[in-house]
Amino acid sequence: MKRYWLVICSLVFSLSAATTEPQSLVLTGAEQMDKYLPLLTEKRVGLLVNQTSLVGEQHLVDALLEKNIQIKAIFAPEHGFRGNHDAGAKIDSGVDERTGIPVWSMYGESKKPTAEQLQQLDMIIFDIQDVGVRYYTYISSMHYMMAAAAEFNIPMLVLDRPNPNGAYVDGPVLDLAFQSFVGMHPIPLLHGMTVGELALMIKGEGWIEQAAKLALTVIPVANYRREQPYELPVAPSPNLPNQQAIKLYPSLGFFEATPLSIGRGTPFPFQVIGYDKFAIDGFNFMPVSTPGAALTPPLMDKQVYGEDLRQVAAEGLSLAYLMRWNQLFSANASEMFTAPAFMDKLAGTDQLRLQITQGLSEAAIRESWQTDLQRFRQQRQPYLLYPDYGAK
Known about the structure:
CATH class of the largest domain: Alpha Beta
Distance between the termini: 28 Å
Number of helices: 12
Domain Peptidoglycan beta-N-acetylmuramidase NamZ C-terminal: 248-386
CATH topology of the largest domain: Rossmann fold
CATH superfamily of the largest domain: Uncharacterised protein PF07075, DUF1343
Strand order of the largest sheet: 5-6-4-1-7-8-11
Radius of gyration: 21 Å
Strand content: 5-15%
Protein name: DUF1343 domain-containing protein
Domain Peptidoglycan beta-N-acetylmuramidase NamZ N-terminal: 45-243
CATH architecture of the largest domain: 3-Layer(aba) Sandwich
Signal peptide: 1-19
Number of domains: 2
Keywords: Signal
């Protein structure tokens, strides 16, 4: 009963999103300014945003400034406010050259804003395009911002956006023993939720301290159904440049814990797999240093041989790539998971790595997830804002 009451109280703007009637135009939360501008009147506002935070073709920061909203701070996640930093690169604080607004890094020495950074704020806005994969770190940045907002009694507004992998609930549910910045919550690798729904769940399940104190409002996406295809209008990060990379990301992200290349430092990151010592197919490529995307990519300046996945039909989570390459490494008396601790953080458990190295079939591995996935599907129900026709 408590969860349902939470959702009713938090979603004063969500009724229009629940319709099942077909609609032609999907409107993000940010694009529905009439629904949230009244909340910002005479408020000092801070925004956790990046290059995906658009209102049409205009950045949300610029759109709000045109409406005379007082923006006192910008908070930058991984890849930076303008989205041009390498994955994992430290983001420095500073001042936005275009607006003169202070920019505070949420991906440097601290991932949670301080009391000093928040002291002038009456409202915090989160508006970042996610890709629906647990180890993509924007939802971790949202987690820490929610925790800070609860601690310092600052209302938080989440402007929701579609999940391009929203049709899928799949993969192992995170064991909190493996919690890290690439996995903060006990959710599957593919959770099938939007950032707005996740924010409601983080609050409702008490996954942040003082969750009950947080005044949370979500502006849902209008005319959206989670199973409908949605192509992002702007790349969410330098190494996810197109829809194919976004679709392959759940399956290829695990290779970050191996010595293989998945195309960082090429024009097609997260769309190829390769190695320099042995290969599956005859396709070849050479990773090079690419400022803003991969300064020192794996196997840099080496000829790499492997698989070209740019034209494959990619949907959901596939373990076939990991299993096939692990078999090849084993046949060559080599260890593929050279960073096992990181692999376990990405997977949210050590079981996936152990199952693969022990030679279990993909069907057996998937079967081991089903009880946890069913429990999660039930757990998430009170927080869903959009029609749920059964995730794949």
